[in-house]
Design a protein that fits this description.
150 residues, mainly alpha, 0% strand, disordered N terminus
Length: 150
Amino acid sequence: MKTTTGKMHLAVIAAVFLSSAAQAQLDATAEPGRPSYNPATAMCMRTDDVNDKTCRSRPDASSWPASCGQAVSQFLAKLDDNSKQALRKTKYTELKDHAVLWGMLVRNRFGLWRGNSALIASCLAMRPGSSADPEDISWVIVEEGWKRLQ
């Protein structure tokens, strides 16, 4: 994994706490081709999504995936090529370090904090003995996405 990718992930996570002036500075130094963090569109996973009228920061329940397989497919479809490559190249032992951001996006975009019980039940069926906690469910989705890219 290139150092710039690690810096980008750290910068995206840290941006939650930055002022708008600091945010502007962060955006100005962002790696070309990489999405920059914008709190208003934080659930939009690609740079293209920022200008997409259908990309909302908190999609309504009608757009939530109902199965773990659907969630993995939607998660991977929303990643740009650079992010897919980064996920593909990530060693399993390092996956949780990068899953912080991806997991947050999955939890918010797929309604895990807002009661998407169908998705939670589907992921639990896939992983008997797992916790129904949204953080654990998002990990299942990110990990399954990683497996598909291997």
